[in-house]
Amino acid sequence: MQVTQALWQCPNCHNVLTPSDSGLACTNGHSFDRAKQGYVNLLLANKKHSRDPGDDQSMIDARRAFLQAGHYKFLIENIASLIQEVQGRAERQAPTSELTEAEDLPVTLLDIGCGEAYYLAQLQQQLQQGLPSPLQLLGIDISKFAVKRAAPYLKQAQFAVASSFDIPVLDNSIQCALSVFAPFDSKEVARILKKTQSCFIRVTPGPRHLYQIKQALYEQANLHEPASIPEGFELLTEKQLHRTISLNGAGDLANLLAMTPLNWHGRAESKTELLAQAQIDLELDFCVQVFTAVELVEDASDEAVEQLPNEPIAESEAVSENEVENEAENEAENEAKNALKGE
Predict the structure, then answer these.
(1) Among 103, 205, 285, 323, which is most exposed with the fewest C-beta within 10 angstroms?
(2) Please, which residues have CB within 8 angstroms of residue 129's CB and are 6 or more apart in sequence?
(3) Sign of the C-alpha dihedral, residues 72, 73, 78, 83?
(4) Is residue 172 part of a domain?
(5) Which domain holds residue 321?
């Protein structure tokens, strides 16, 4: 029988949330109803900067259509391979006492900025036969529209509307955290990771990601700059993935453009001309990095907020986390909304 761990944390008091008749509740009386789709909303009203933050319905529909066509399948396969490699190495190096203690517990995987759960669902298929323990899957996104799609799509996982800058997950509870083109607070990610046998996988755009679209829309197309190592983390391994695909303007290219900040910028006539093309050869370029958390010297004056690059991201997960409490986070939101960051 699979053991399910209590992983959610109350966004009000930070106590553990446990299942109730209607959703989740903590011992201090804070409760959160489960929507009919199966998710809970853990984004407090004072953490929202708009009525419906994150991706809208049209972006979610476009992203689902594009991803379901399988164009990023090779990315998923590489992420799954890295998770298996890291977990296998951690188990080989762990003391016998730790392995005995953890043998009945599932491998906990959190997708930060999960969107409509495409990546999480694909990883489940890739990993369920490749890990020694069952998976316990969680996803958060600040877009309610995205999470409403995610919960019924992947019923084996748990989903919450939440901010990646205030993750409602317990300390020391996640073995693998994943961010695919999503902004995050590095201190929050470090807080939720288990102290041993854990990792953080980040996917960012490689230098030439969607370069041909940028060439078509902008007078000068710049290469993506490498993302810096998040504060409080050490790089374990890194993979550069590059592939060229062919898309038609009326179908997949239109969906790809609609799900990205590139859709909001550039010359309108150039976008029309781009979508009128019968076919375009397009570069996909990803940087996949695996990190482990290291001890930080606390400095109250310095917030460890992960900043996004200064080029338009190719996909909307970066937009789906526009948020919250301090000026650094607000800047990250505004930059994403202005398409100055990107997948």
Answers:
(1) 103
(2) none
(3) positive
(4) yes
(5) 44-295+303-337
Domain count of the fold of the chain: 1
pLDDT in tens, 183-197: 999 999 999 999 988
What angle separates helix 57-68 from helix 118-127, to the nearest 10 degrees?
30
pLDDT at position 330: 45
Could you give the CA distance from residue 310 to residue 6 in angstroms, rounded to a whole number?
A: 38
Assigned domain for 171 exists: yes
Residue 338 above 60 pLDDT? no
The answer to whether residue 191 is domain-embedded is: yes
Long-range contacts of 128-131 (CB under 8 A, 24+ apart): 130/80, 130/84, 131/83, 131/84, 131/87, 131/107
Query: Is the residue at 24 inside a domain?
Result: no
Rounded to whole angstroms, the Cα distance separating 106 from 6 reads 11
- Mode of pairing for the β-strands spanning 280-293 and 233-247: antiparallel
Among candidates 184, 185, 205, which has minimal Cα distance to 288? Answer: 205
Tokens 């607000």, residue? 330
Contact 211, 230 (CB under 8 A): no
What values do phi and psi take at 198, rounded to 5?
-130, 165
Output the CA angle 60-137-128, nearest 5 degrees.
Answer: 110
Q: What share of the chain is helix, strand, coil (3-state, %, to 5)?
A: 35, 25, 45
Say how far apart CA 133 and CA 90 lie, in whole Å. 13
Task: Kindly report the average pLDDT of the chain as a whole number.
Answer: 84
Residue 317 has pLDDT above 80, yes or no: no
pLDDT at 266 over 50: yes
- The strand pair at 107-112 and 135-141 is best described as parallel
Tokens for 245, please give them: 């695909």
In this model, does residue 163 exceed pLDDT 50?
Answer: yes
Dihedral angle of Cα 261, 123, 121, 305, to the nearest 10 degrees: -40
- CATH code of 138's domain: 3.40.50.150
pTM to 2 decimal places: 0.84
For residues 284 and 207, is the Cβ–Cβ distance under 8 A?
A: no
